[in-house]
Protein backbone atom coordinates (compact mmCIF):
# COMPACT_ATOMS: atom_id res chain seq x y z
CA UNK A 1 0.00 0.00 0.00
CA UNK A 2 2.84 2.34 0.80
CA UNK A 3 4.41 1.71 -2.60
CA UNK A 4 1.14 2.43 -4.37
CA UNK A 5 0.69 5.63 -2.40
CA UNK A 6 4.21 6.84 -3.25
CA UNK A 7 3.71 5.90 -6.89
CA UNK A 8 0.50 7.91 -7.08
CA UNK A 9 2.12 10.81 -5.28
CA UNK A 10 4.92 10.89 -7.86
CA UNK A 11 2.48 11.28 -10.75
CA UNK A 12 1.18 14.57 -12.10
CA UNK A 13 -2.50 15.19 -12.70
CA UNK A 14 -3.80 16.94 -15.81
CA UNK A 15 -3.34 20.48 -14.51
CA UNK A 16 0.13 19.72 -13.17
CA UNK A 17 1.16 18.18 -16.48
CA UNK A 18 0.18 21.42 -18.19
CA UNK A 19 2.28 23.42 -15.71
CA UNK A 20 5.22 21.09 -16.28
CA UNK A 21 4.99 21.47 -20.06
CA UNK A 22 4.72 25.26 -19.78
CA UNK A 23 7.75 25.56 -17.49
CA UNK A 24 9.80 23.29 -19.73
CA UNK A 25 8.76 25.15 -22.89
CA UNK A 26 9.61 28.57 -21.43
CA UNK A 27 13.02 27.36 -20.25
CA UNK A 28 13.87 25.94 -23.66
CA UNK A 29 12.68 29.13 -25.38
CA UNK A 30 15.09 31.08 -23.18
CA UNK A 31 18.03 29.08 -24.49
CA UNK A 32 18.44 26.45 -21.77
CA UNK A 33 19.20 22.86 -22.74
CA UNK A 34 16.78 20.09 -21.80
CA UNK A 35 18.80 18.89 -18.82
CA UNK A 36 19.37 22.46 -17.61
CA UNK A 37 15.66 23.18 -17.95
CA UNK A 38 14.86 20.15 -15.83
CA UNK A 39 17.47 21.21 -13.26
CA UNK A 40 15.63 24.54 -12.98
CA UNK A 41 12.31 22.83 -12.27
CA UNK A 42 12.72 22.58 -8.46
CA UNK A 43 13.34 26.34 -8.39
CA UNK A 44 10.59 27.28 -10.84
CA UNK A 45 8.05 24.94 -9.29
CA UNK A 46 8.45 24.97 -5.48
CA UNK A 47 5.14 23.17 -5.02
CA UNK A 48 6.63 20.07 -6.67
CA UNK A 49 10.19 20.63 -5.52
CA UNK A 50 10.78 17.14 -4.11
CA UNK A 51 9.32 15.41 -7.16
CA UNK A 52 11.37 17.58 -9.52
CA UNK A 53 14.52 16.90 -7.51
CA UNK A 54 13.88 13.18 -7.94
CA UNK A 55 13.42 13.76 -11.67
CA UNK A 56 16.71 15.66 -11.89
CA UNK A 57 18.54 12.90 -10.03
CA UNK A 58 17.13 10.15 -12.26
CA UNK A 59 17.97 12.12 -15.40
CA UNK A 60 21.54 12.61 -14.20
CA UNK A 61 21.72 8.88 -13.49
CA UNK A 62 21.10 8.26 -17.18
CA UNK A 63 17.36 7.64 -17.33
CA UNK A 64 15.69 8.62 -20.60
CA UNK A 65 13.39 11.62 -20.69
CA UNK A 66 10.57 9.59 -22.26
CA UNK A 67 10.71 7.00 -19.47
CA UNK A 68 10.56 9.76 -16.88
CA UNK A 69 7.54 11.34 -18.57
CA UNK A 70 5.68 8.03 -18.38
CA UNK A 71 6.57 7.75 -14.71
CA UNK A 72 5.19 11.26 -14.19
CA UNK A 73 1.85 10.13 -15.61
CA UNK A 74 1.99 11.29 -19.23
CA UNK A 75 0.29 9.01 -21.77
CA UNK A 76 2.35 6.85 -24.14
CA UNK A 77 1.04 8.81 -27.12
CA UNK A 78 2.14 12.12 -25.61
CA UNK A 79 5.53 10.69 -24.67
CA UNK A 80 6.01 9.41 -28.22
CA UNK A 81 5.24 12.86 -29.59
CA UNK A 82 7.85 14.37 -27.29
CA UNK A 83 10.33 11.66 -28.21
CA UNK A 84 9.81 12.24 -31.94
CA UNK A 85 10.21 15.99 -31.51
CA UNK A 86 13.28 15.56 -29.33
CA UNK A 87 15.00 13.43 -31.94
CA UNK A 88 14.02 15.79 -34.75
CA UNK A 89 14.96 18.99 -32.92
CA UNK A 90 11.39 20.32 -32.76
CA UNK A 91 10.85 19.96 -29.03
CA UNK A 92 9.75 23.56 -28.38
CA UNK A 93 7.11 23.45 -31.10
CA UNK A 94 5.91 20.07 -29.87
CA UNK A 95 5.67 21.30 -26.28
CA UNK A 96 3.75 24.32 -27.49
CA UNK A 97 1.29 22.07 -29.30
CA UNK A 98 0.91 19.79 -26.27
CA UNK A 99 0.40 22.82 -24.01
CA UNK A 100 -2.36 24.12 -26.27
CA UNK A 101 -4.08 20.72 -26.26
CA UNK A 102 -3.69 20.31 -22.50
CA UNK A 103 -4.99 23.81 -21.86
CA UNK A 104 -7.98 23.16 -24.11
CA UNK A 105 -8.67 19.96 -22.22
CA UNK A 106 -8.43 21.64 -18.81
CA UNK A 107 -10.66 24.52 -19.89
CA UNK A 108 -13.31 22.16 -21.19
CA UNK A 109 -13.12 20.02 -18.05
CA UNK A 110 -13.72 23.14 -15.94
CA UNK A 111 -16.65 24.12 -18.15
CA UNK A 112 -18.09 20.64 -17.86
CA UNK A 113 -17.80 20.75 -14.07
CA UNK A 114 -19.61 24.08 -14.06
CA UNK A 115 -22.29 22.71 -16.37
CA UNK A 116 -22.76 19.62 -14.19
CA UNK A 117 -22.77 21.36 -10.80
CA UNK A 118 -26.43 22.41 -10.91
CA UNK A 119 -27.73 19.07 -12.28
CA UNK A 120 -25.64 17.33 -9.62
CA UNK A 121 -27.33 19.32 -6.84
CA UNK A 122 -30.73 18.54 -8.35
CA UNK A 123 -29.83 14.86 -8.53
CA UNK A 124 -28.90 14.82 -4.83
CA UNK A 125 -32.18 16.52 -3.93
CA UNK A 126 -34.02 14.00 -6.08
CA UNK A 127 -32.36 11.09 -4.28
CA UNK A 128 -33.34 12.59 -0.91
CA UNK A 129 -36.91 13.04 -2.12
CA UNK A 130 -37.00 9.49 -3.42
CA UNK A 131 -35.77 8.18 -0.08
CA UNK A 132 -38.45 10.19 1.71
CA UNK A 133 -41.13 8.88 -0.62
CA UNK A 134 -39.98 5.32 -0.19
CA UNK A 135 -39.83 5.56 3.60
CA UNK A 136 -42.89 7.63 4.51
CA UNK A 137 -45.31 7.98 1.63
CA UNK A 138 -45.21 4.82 -0.45
CA UNK A 139 -45.73 2.65 2.62
CA UNK A 140 -49.04 4.41 3.26
CA UNK A 141 -50.34 3.33 -0.13
CA UNK A 142 -48.63 0.00 -0.47
CA UNK A 143 -50.31 -2.56 -2.64
CA UNK A 144 -48.76 -5.97 -2.93
CA UNK A 145 -50.06 -6.41 -6.48
CA UNK A 146 -48.88 -3.08 -7.85
CA UNK A 147 -45.23 -2.92 -8.89
CA UNK A 148 -45.33 -0.82 -12.06
CA UNK A 149 -43.94 2.23 -10.24
CA UNK A 150 -41.09 0.15 -8.86
CA UNK A 151 -40.31 -1.18 -12.32
CA UNK A 152 -40.14 2.35 -13.71
CA UNK A 153 -37.76 3.43 -10.96
CA UNK A 154 -35.60 0.34 -11.41
CA UNK A 155 -35.39 1.10 -15.12
CA UNK A 156 -34.33 4.68 -14.46
CA UNK A 157 -31.77 3.58 -11.87
CA UNK A 158 -30.41 1.12 -14.43
CA UNK A 159 -30.07 3.92 -16.99
CA UNK A 160 -28.24 6.15 -14.49
CA UNK A 161 -25.87 3.35 -13.47
CA UNK A 162 -25.19 2.55 -17.12
CA UNK A 163 -24.42 6.23 -17.72
CA UNK A 164 -22.00 6.31 -14.79
CA UNK A 165 -20.26 3.17 -16.06
CA UNK A 166 -20.11 4.64 -19.56
CA UNK A 167 -18.52 7.85 -18.24
CA UNK A 168 -16.02 5.99 -16.04
CA UNK A 169 -15.04 3.78 -18.97
CA UNK A 170 -14.41 6.81 -21.16
CA UNK A 171 -12.22 8.44 -18.51
CA UNK A 172 -10.12 5.27 -18.10
CA UNK A 173 -9.59 4.92 -21.85
CA UNK A 174 -8.79 8.61 -22.26
CA UNK A 175 -6.11 8.39 -19.60
CA UNK A 176 -4.44 5.51 -21.45
CA UNK A 177 -4.49 7.17 -24.90
CA UNK A 178 -2.90 4.18 -26.62
CA UNK A 179 -3.93 2.71 -29.97
CA UNK A 180 -6.38 0.15 -28.58
CA UNK A 181 -8.00 2.66 -26.22
CA UNK A 182 -8.46 5.24 -28.95
CA UNK A 183 -9.89 2.63 -31.29
CA UNK A 184 -12.48 1.66 -28.69
CA UNK A 185 -13.35 5.27 -27.95
CA UNK A 186 -14.08 6.03 -31.62
CA UNK A 187 -16.86 3.43 -31.48
CA UNK A 188 -18.58 5.14 -28.55
CA UNK A 189 -21.66 7.22 -29.40
CA UNK A 190 -21.47 11.02 -29.09
CA UNK A 191 -17.80 11.16 -28.05
CA UNK A 192 -16.50 8.92 -30.86
CA UNK A 193 -16.32 11.58 -33.61
CA UNK A 194 -14.52 13.98 -31.26
CA UNK A 195 -11.90 11.36 -30.37
CA UNK A 196 -11.42 10.53 -34.05
CA UNK A 197 -10.86 14.18 -34.88
CA UNK A 198 -8.38 14.48 -32.00
CA UNK A 199 -6.34 11.52 -33.27
CA UNK A 200 -6.51 12.85 -36.84
CA UNK A 201 -5.04 16.11 -35.62
CA UNK A 202 -2.21 14.43 -33.70
CA UNK A 203 -1.22 12.20 -36.60
CA UNK A 204 -1.40 14.90 -39.28
CA UNK A 205 0.74 17.14 -37.09
CA UNK A 206 3.32 14.37 -36.56
CA UNK A 207 3.38 13.56 -40.28
CA UNK A 208 3.93 17.22 -41.09
CA UNK A 209 6.85 17.42 -38.66
CA UNK A 210 8.47 14.27 -40.03
CA UNK A 211 8.04 15.42 -43.63
CA UNK A 212 9.77 18.67 -42.70
CA UNK A 213 12.69 16.58 -41.46
CA UNK A 214 12.97 14.81 -44.84
CA UNK A 215 11.33 11.50 -43.99
CA UNK A 216 9.71 9.39 -46.68
CA UNK A 217 6.51 7.50 -45.87
CA UNK A 218 8.35 4.20 -45.44
CA UNK A 219 10.97 5.83 -43.21
CA UNK A 220 8.20 7.41 -41.13
CA UNK A 221 6.67 4.01 -40.49
CA UNK A 222 10.02 2.48 -39.58
CA UNK A 223 10.79 5.38 -37.29
CA UNK A 224 7.37 5.39 -35.63
CA UNK A 225 7.41 1.62 -35.07
CA UNK A 226 10.52 2.03 -32.91
CA UNK A 227 8.81 4.47 -30.55
CA UNK A 228 7.12 3.77 -27.21
CA UNK A 229 5.47 0.35 -27.44
CA UNK A 230 1.69 0.54 -27.35
CA UNK A 231 1.54 4.20 -28.28
CA UNK A 232 -0.69 5.40 -31.08
CA UNK A 233 2.24 6.28 -33.34
CA UNK A 234 4.08 3.01 -32.72
CA UNK A 235 1.05 0.84 -33.44
CA UNK A 236 0.15 2.74 -36.60
CA UNK A 237 3.75 2.86 -37.83
CA UNK A 238 4.08 -0.88 -37.41
CA UNK A 239 0.72 -1.61 -39.02
CA UNK A 240 1.11 0.71 -42.03
CA UNK A 241 4.78 -0.23 -42.52
CA UNK A 242 3.77 -3.88 -42.73
CA UNK A 243 1.03 -3.06 -45.26
CA UNK A 244 3.44 -1.03 -47.41
CA UNK A 245 5.97 -3.86 -47.32
CA UNK A 246 3.28 -6.21 -48.63
CA UNK A 247 2.66 -3.84 -51.53
CA UNK A 248 -0.70 -2.49 -50.40
CA UNK A 249 -1.74 0.66 -52.23
CA UNK A 250 -1.36 3.86 -50.17
CA UNK A 251 -4.85 5.01 -51.10
CA UNK A 252 -6.31 1.76 -49.81
CA UNK A 253 -4.30 2.02 -46.58
CA UNK A 254 -5.57 5.55 -45.85
CA UNK A 255 -9.15 4.60 -46.68
CA UNK A 256 -9.06 1.53 -44.43
CA UNK A 257 -7.29 3.18 -41.50
CA UNK A 258 -9.88 4.99 -39.41
CA UNK A 259 -7.28 7.24 -37.78
CA UNK A 260 -5.99 8.71 -41.05
CA UNK A 261 -8.24 11.44 -42.53
CA UNK A 262 -9.12 11.21 -46.23
CA UNK A 263 -8.00 14.83 -46.63
CA UNK A 264 -4.46 13.59 -46.00
CA UNK A 265 -4.72 11.38 -49.06
CA UNK A 266 -5.67 14.40 -51.17
CA UNK A 267 -2.49 16.16 -50.03
CA UNK A 268 -0.32 13.13 -50.74
CA UNK A 269 -1.75 12.83 -54.25
CA UNK A 270 -0.67 16.35 -55.17
CA UNK A 271 2.90 15.15 -55.58
CA UNK A 272 4.35 18.28 -54.00
CA UNK A 273 7.86 18.48 -52.60
CA UNK A 274 8.27 17.33 -49.02
CA UNK A 275 8.72 20.85 -47.72
CA UNK A 276 5.49 22.06 -49.32
CA UNK A 277 3.72 18.86 -48.32
CA UNK A 278 4.89 19.37 -44.75
CA UNK A 279 3.47 22.89 -44.68
CA UNK A 280 0.20 21.63 -46.15
CA UNK A 281 -0.02 18.95 -43.45
CA UNK A 282 0.60 21.50 -40.72
CA UNK A 283 -2.09 23.74 -42.23
CA UNK A 284 -4.46 20.78 -42.33
CA UNK A 285 -3.56 20.11 -38.70
CA UNK A 286 -4.51 23.66 -37.73
CA UNK A 287 -7.83 23.25 -39.51
CA UNK A 288 -8.47 19.98 -37.69
CA UNK A 289 -7.61 21.68 -34.40
CA UNK A 290 -10.20 24.40 -35.02
CA UNK A 291 -12.81 21.73 -35.81
CA UNK A 292 -11.78 19.82 -32.70
CA UNK A 293 -12.18 22.90 -30.50
CA UNK A 294 -15.65 23.59 -31.89
CA UNK A 295 -16.79 19.99 -31.45
CA UNK A 296 -15.55 19.82 -27.86
CA UNK A 297 -17.28 23.09 -26.97
CA UNK A 298 -20.50 21.89 -28.56
CA UNK A 299 -20.24 18.60 -26.67
CA UNK A 300 -19.70 20.35 -23.34
CA UNK A 301 -22.60 22.77 -23.92
CA UNK A 302 -24.96 19.86 -24.63
CA UNK A 303 -24.05 18.01 -21.42
CA UNK A 304 -26.28 20.09 -19.13
CA UNK A 305 -29.48 19.80 -21.23
CA UNK A 306 -28.95 16.05 -21.43
CA UNK A 307 -28.62 15.87 -17.64
CA UNK A 308 -31.81 17.90 -17.20
CA UNK A 309 -33.66 15.55 -19.54
CA UNK A 310 -32.44 12.57 -17.53
CA UNK A 311 -33.45 14.24 -14.27
CA UNK A 312 -36.85 15.01 -15.80
CA UNK A 313 -37.40 11.34 -16.57
CA UNK A 314 -36.37 10.47 -13.02
CA UNK A 315 -38.90 12.95 -11.64
CA UNK A 316 -41.60 11.39 -13.81
CA UNK A 317 -40.53 8.00 -12.50
CA UNK A 318 -40.87 9.20 -8.91
CA UNK A 319 -44.35 10.54 -9.56
CA UNK A 320 -45.35 7.26 -11.16
CA UNK A 321 -43.95 5.36 -8.21
CA UNK A 322 -46.09 7.48 -5.91
CA UNK A 323 -49.26 7.68 -7.97
CA UNK A 324 -49.53 4.16 -9.39
CA UNK A 325 -50.18 2.50 -6.00
CA UNK A 326 -52.69 5.25 -5.16
CA UNK A 327 -54.44 4.75 -8.49
CA UNK A 328 -54.51 1.00 -7.94
CA UNK A 329 -56.09 1.44 -4.50
CA UNK A 330 -58.71 3.82 -5.89
CA UNK A 331 -59.65 1.24 -8.51
CA UNK A 332 -60.13 -1.32 -5.76
CA UNK A 333 -62.63 0.85 -3.89
Characterization of the model:
It holds the Pfam family T2SSF. It is found in: Cell membrane. Belongs to the GSP F family. It is a multi-pass membrane protein. There is one protein chain. The protein has two domains: 14-104, Receptor-associated Protein (Up-down Bundle); 144-332, no CATH class. It is built from 16 helices and no strands. The protein has helices at residues 2-9, 14-29, 34-44, 49-60, 65-71, 76-88, 91-137, 148-176, 179-186, 192-212, 217-225, 232-245, 250-256, 262-269, 274-301, 303-332. It is globular and about 80 Å long.
How do the helices and strands line up, and which of them pair or pack?
Layout: H1 2-9, H2 14-29, H3 34-44, H4 49-60, H5 65-71, H6 76-88, H7 91-137, H8 148-176, H9 179-186, H10 192-212, H11 217-225, H12 232-245, H13 250-256, H14 262-269, H15 274-301, H16 303-332
Helix pairs in contact: 2-3, 2-7, 3-4, 5-6, 6-7, 7-15, 7-16, 8-9, 8-16, 10-15, 11-12, 14-15
Features:
333 residues, mainly alpha, Receptor-associated Protein, 2 domains, 16 helices, 80% helix, globular
* Total discrete domains: 2
- Please give the alpha-carbon distance between the first and last residues: 63 Å
Overall morphology: globular
Arithmetic mean pLDDT: 79
Q: Give the helix tally.
A: 16
Element-by-element helix/strand order:
HHHHHHHHHHHHHHHH
Q: Kindly state the percentage of residues in helix.
A: over 70%
Strand content: under 5%
Low-confidence stretches: 1-6
